[in-house]
Amino acid sequence: MSRKRMKLLVDSLTRSSKHFNKSEVECLVNLFDTLVAKASSHFAGAGFDRTVFRDTLHSAFGLTDEVMLDRVFSTFDRSNTGSITVVEWVEGLGVLLRGTLEEKMKYCFAIYDLNGDGYISREEMFQMLKNSLLIQPADEEPDEGVKDLVEIALKKMDYDHDGKLSFMDFEKAVREESLLLEAFGPCLPDIKSIIAFEQKVFRETPK
Ligand code: CA
Ligand code: CA
Q1: What pLDDT score was predicted for residue 42?
Q2: Half-sphere exposure of 152 (CA within 13 A, CB side)
Q3: Confidence (pLDDT) at 39
Q4: What is the 3-state secondary structure (H, E, C) of the chain?
Q5: Residue 93's pLDDT is what?
Q6: Distance 11 CA to ligand 1 centre (A)
Q7: Ligand 1 midpoint to CA 168 (Å)
Q8: Does the fold of domain 101-182 match that of domain 3-99+190-201?
Q9: Mean pLDDT of 189-203
Q10: Distance 2 CA to ligand 1 centre (A)
């Protein structure tokens, strides 16, 4: 990328970013370029693919759950093209690293609403909880235990008793008990890996 194009890109991303200053945006764009170089060639220039995204989030933030990582990818990939553009990258990281509670609630809800219909259904909860419990030792009737958990989650979070979680249900529950933000699977980095990531990425002096 030419210097002039880079400068225009950084300026425009800085204007639209709520969370990063200009030199931080520059560092994130440099990291983006490194990741694009790693990605399969037909994406070159436009973005990087799912595999590079998963590897990066795995090593930077210790996110290992495959199902959740796929959902994180889809949430970053707003334009639904199968690759992450520089705009999606900077916006997504803004939420992961420095998002407000409001932004994080929207992000987690979008992750957990697997089919994107605006509700977290019983079936979706079941699928996610079953996936995150697979690491536990095998039970006699593992599905029964997961079903119980779904009912417990509904009892705690389904304020309007319609058998599914709307964003309003989710928001109210999380405001009362912040641990419920990641009730259905880990999808946010912990504070330690955020600090480590920022120290590593933002320390590098931009070219
Ligand atoms: Ca849904
Ligand atoms: Ca409800």
Answers
A1: 58
A2: 10
A3: 80
A4: CCHHHHHHHHHHHHHHCCCCCHHHHHHHHHHHHHHHHHCCHHHCCCCEEHHHHHHHHHHHHCCCCHHHHHHHHHHHCCCCCCEECHHHHHHHHHHHHHCCHHHHHHHHHHHHCCCCCCCECHHHHHHHHHHHHCCCCCCCCHHHHHHHHHHHHHHHHCCCCCCCECHHHHHHHHHHCHHHHHCCCCCCCCHHHHHHHHHHHHHCCCC
A5: 97
A6: 37
A7: 14
A8: yes
A9: 95
A10: 43
2: confidence class by pLDDT, cuts 50, 70, 90:
confident
Rounded to whole angstroms, how far apart are CA atoms 106 and 47?
Answer: 24
- For tokens 């690491």, what's the residue? 135
Q: Ligand 2 centroid to 178 CA: how many Å?
A: 18
CA–centroid distance, 121 to ligand 1, in Å, is: 5
Domain locations along the chain: 3-99+190-201, 101-182
The pLDDT value recorded for residue 137 is: 60
- Ligand closest to the CA atom of residue 153: 2
pLDDT in tens, 168-194: 999 999 999 999 999 999 999 999 999
To the question of pTM greater than 0.85 for the whole model, the response is yes
Q: Which CATH class for the 3-99+190-201 domain? A: mainly alpha
Q: Which residues of 173-203 are buried (b: 16+ CB within 10 A; e: fewer)?
A: bbeeeeebbbbbbbbbbeeebbeebeeebbe
101-182 belongs to which CATH class? mainly alpha
